[in-house]
Amino acid sequence: MSSKSKLISILVVLILIIVGLFYWQQHKKSGNDEIVIGISPPFAKPLQVAVNEAKKQGINVKIVEFSDWNTPNITLSHGDIDANYFQHQPFLTNAIKETGFKLKPVGVGVATHVGLYSKKYTTLDAIPDHARVVIPNDPVNQGRALLLLQQAKLVQLKDPNDHLSNLQSIANNPKQLNFIEVEGPQTARAVDDADLVFSYPLYLRLAKTIDPNKALLLDDETNKRYAILFVVRDDYENKHPEKAEKLKKFIEIYQTSPAVNQALNDDIGKNLWFAGWK
Fold this sequence. Notes:
Helix content: 25-40%
Number of helices: 9
Largest sheet: 5 strands, mixed
Number of strands: 14
């Protein structure tokens, strides 16, 4: 090989190395700039629309799904994700109390109505004595379920306004209902077996067990207590100021994008959700 050919070969190799390093650095930078948000599966579709909208503005967001309601906070606390989006303020407050995690909300998402559902009975009056009633087993959502059962006049609570009521808080149970406690996401699948189930439109639509619009009773609460929150670690803005700004912009996109609004209507049901940030 001539000296000229050797020189050309060396230059080609150097160019390839430089190009390779450039793309590696770009990939590394992109990976570092990517915002990772942990969610529950029912929130995926509208959030993915927000991800697509954000990408048009140069904001890269990755969604990671968790099947339970404990792992998203554990993973966030360990620093493996940037934020999560699956819980409302009462749930977050209780989680912090139980675990000591240093977490905080940085944005508000949607709130959904909850309902009482049955495949066996078409009215609340038809619910028989000793009926099997499924409710969530976590303290916060169990309280929400009992408030709805009280609204249905199926139970009476010692404190009618206590949103943290539990089974021991029931003062009167005239039909002697038998309560079955399950993890919140599993309430949607219990509709096939139980007499009456407290559940959430998002999870029912995902499980495809019953039309979320066919509740025997929906809650009449439209305050923002149960709006789903974007949650981060307490030190997130200090440790990741640039990503924190991008997350703020992403939340704004989620709240204001017409495409996201339409996705929420399609996925949850137009009359089953309302904006928690308004």
